[in-house]
Amino acid sequence: IHLISYAYIRLLGPVGLRRSTEVAILNANYLRAKLTGHYDILYQGNSGNVAHEMIIDCRPFKNSAGIEVTDIAKRLIDCGFHAPTMSWPVAGTLMIEPTESENKAELDRFCDAMLAIRAEIADIEYGTVDPDNNP
After folding, report:
1. What is the pLDDT along the chain (135 residues), one digit of tens a residue?
2. pLDDT score for 1
3. pTM of the full predicted structure?
4. Are 49 and 120 in contact (CB under 8 A)?
5. Collapsing DSSP states into helix, strand and coil, what is residue 79?
6. Taking the CB of the first residue and of the last residue of the chain, which one, N or C, has fewer CB atoms within 10 A?
7. Do 33 and 39 contact (CB within 8 A), yes or no?
8. Helices 69-78 and 104-125 meet at what angle, rounded to 10?
9. Cross-strand partners of 55
10. Residues 6+ apart with CB under 8 A from 121
11. Residue 36's beta-bridge partner residues?
């Protein structure tokens, strides 16, 4: 496994590795900016930025709508996304790590899915859909 990482770093070279890191951080902060206000984001710096990953707190939805982090992960799968890391490093959260290879269209598609899922949760919270029979 170390050989794969080593080869990737060597192929990128110092300039490519730095650029790849910058784009991964930019992508994570793009998602943060689009999802802030809809989801609670953990571990933001003083400036509000995140590093190369973003942790969304899903714990409040358990009390407000009976929704677990696994429910959100499964909905992302329904939307054609591989489920992010769940409950690590914090139980009840999603750790989203957009890589340097994700383009803006894919990042927007992911945000649209996350916003749609949040709207579905809100429908449960406001009682407009059945809490047991919903997407």
Report:
1. 789 999 999 999 999 999 999 999 999 999 999 999 999 999 999 999 999 999 999 999 999 999 999 999 999 999 999 999 999 999 999 999 998 989 999 999 999 999 999 999 999 999 999 999 988
2. 78
3. 0.92
4. no
5. coil
6. N
7. no
8. 130
9. 42, 95
10. 61, 64, 65, 67
11. 39
> Which residue matches tokens 């009840």?
92
Record the tokens describing residue 18, joined without a space. 């730095």
Q: Count Cβ neighbours within 10 Å for each residue of 96-126 and write b for 16 or more, e otherwise.
A: bbbebebeeeebeebbebbeebbebbebbbe
Q: Which residues pair with 94 in a beta bridge?
A: 56, 86
Residue with tokens 């591989």: 82
Scanning the chain, the segments in alpha helix (DSSP H) are: 2-35, 60-65, 69-78, 104-125
Helix, strand, or coil (residue 118): helix
Q: How far apart are CA 85 and CA 66, in angstroms?
A: 20
Contact 92, 56 (CB under 8 A): no
> Quick one: tokens of 101?
């290879």
